[in-house]
Amino acid sequence: MPSAIHRYFGRISGPLLDRIDMHIEVSPVPISDMTSTKEEESSRTIRERVIRARQRQEQRFEGTNIHSNSMMNSRMLRTFCALEPSVRTLLERAMERLNLSARAYDRIIKVARTIADLEASEQITAAHIAEAIGYRSLDRNAHL
């Protein structure tokens, strides 16, 4: 018998899910993590990194009507998000294994470009692609 979660996801169409760039499951935070005294990255530091990433995007798209990675079309993806052959192979294998759509392919690359921008990386690496694929959890669950 399917769980309530699977029944709920069954009502959401694939084309609708494709239009959502990131979907992740959030597990409850263990009490040990909530009471930990470990130093975490401050909101101020995160904010500064996001501002720098947005500035990189503004420079990248200077002279166009595009303001962020999410607005790129397929032609711009080829220009601004060229993938090394090994990185492209990783993405292609994930696409086949997870049975993802062409729209999901583009969205994964856009999210990976943003992750790279947050790390001040000019190139999209395998780690960026892997993280972006990880943000497609509803796609993975839909094909289980």
Strands, helices and their partners?
Blueprint: H1 4-10, H2 14-18, H3 31-34, H4 43-60, H5 74-80, H6 85-98, H7 102-118, H8 126-134, H9 137-142
Helix pairs in contact: 6-8, 7-8
Mean pLDDT: 85
Counting H and I runs of at least 4 residues, what is the number of helices? 9
Residue windows where pLDDT falls under 50 for at least 5 positions: 140-144
Query: Which secondary-structure class do the elements indicate?
Result: mainly alpha
Distance between the ends: 14 Å
Order of helices and strands: HHHHHHHHH
Biggest beta sheet attributes: none
Please bin the fraction of helical residues. Answer: 55-70%
Give the overall silhouette: globular
**Rounded to an integer, what's the Rg over CA atoms?**
17 Å
The count of strands amounts to 0
Instruction: Give the strand content.
Output: under 5%
Explain what this protein looks like in three dimensions.
The protein has 144 residues and is an all-alpha fold. The protein has a domain at 74-144. The protein is built from 9 helices and no strands. Helix 6 (85-98) runs parallel beside helix 8 (126-134) and helix 7 packs across helix 8 (126-134). The longest helix is centred in the middle third of the chain and has 18 residues, at 43-60. The two termini are 14 Å apart.
Features:
9 helices, 144 residues
